[in-house]
Amino acid sequence: EVQLVESGGGLVQPGGSLRLSCAASGFTFSNYDMSWVRQAPGKGLEWVSSISPSGGSTYYPDSLRGRFTISRDNSKNTLYLQMNSLRAEDTAVYYCAKERGKNDYWGQGTLVTVSS
Amino acid sequence: DIVMTQSPDSLAVSLGERATINCKSSQSILYSFDNKNHLAWYQQKAGQPPKLLIYWTSTRESGVPDRFSGSGSGTDFTLTISSLQAEDVAVYYCQQCYTTPITFGQGTRLEIK
Predict the structure, then answer these.
(1) I need a surface site. Which of A29, A58, B14, B30 has the fewest CB within 10 A?
(2) Which residues of A fall within a CB distance of 8 Å from B43?
(3) Whose CA is closest to A77, among A36, A2, A24?
(4) What pLDDT is attached to residue A49?
(5) Which residues of A touch B106 (CB under 8 A)?
(6) Burial of B61 (0-12, 13-18, 19+ CB in 10 A)
(7) Per-residue pLDDT tens for A23-69?
């Protein structure tokens, strides 16, 4: 059974940093693109980042490039999202998802709240 | 960036009736390599993560009931629920995965009339 379990969310002050993790199991993690997608409270889905199976290619929307960094450790079957210079508008549930698009498996999400 | 626009924003349909949700992309999402429109549909129920329903415009994900179907070409796509069930109450999103940035429609809220 495929499982994606996010962790690392919480309350952070504006300007602060946070690193999210996503532990994957039930599939050959190193064979797949992985993604982060976020959802602000009461809002729609927003793609945050994706990474290739080897980690050699990463993808971001222009609005987040430079502040967010996606990475993976295939030896630990874990996906990461380093978030810096956080703003109130980054407040959202962050989902880990398998694949770059056509995301067939999602985690339950981890809530990030940016507030003073 | 490719803009995905869904209509309507919300929809109320009687049980057993047909529900239709539209999605329009601001440019073609047809990938010439495989001749497929890289358009997916997701269902998100309250308090849950999204669930993949359909990909490549019309291919149902494993386990998805056959009352869900997708169609379309060019820049216009449709999700149809042929006979609405109570458990179909949710927000539905389209997504283009043709190119990055991956983009989603704004969502369509489906309720029971």
Answers:
(1) B14
(2) none
(3) A24
(4) 98
(5) 44
(6) middle
(7) 999 999 999 999 999 999 999 999 999 999 999 999 999 999 999 99
B102 and A44: CB-CB below 8 Å?
no
Comparing C-alpha atoms, which of A69, A35, A34, A37 is closest to residue A53? A34
- Dump pLDDT digits (tens) for B6-65: 999 999 999 999 999 999 999 999 999 999 999 999 999 999 999 999 999 999 999 999
pLDDT of residue B11: 97
Contact A75, A57 (CB under 8 A): no
Distance to chain A for B106, nearest Cα, Å? 6
- HSE value, Cβ hemisphere, 13 Å, CA-based, for B111: 7
Cα separations in angstroms, B5 against A29, A110, B70:
33, 27, 16
Across the interface, whether the CB atoms of A106 and B40 are under 8 A apart is answered no
Instruction: Give the number of A-B residue pairs with CB atoms closer than 8 Å.
Output: 61
- Which residues face A70 on adjacent strands? A81
Percent of chain A with pLDDT over 70: 100
| B23 close to A (CB below 8 A) | no
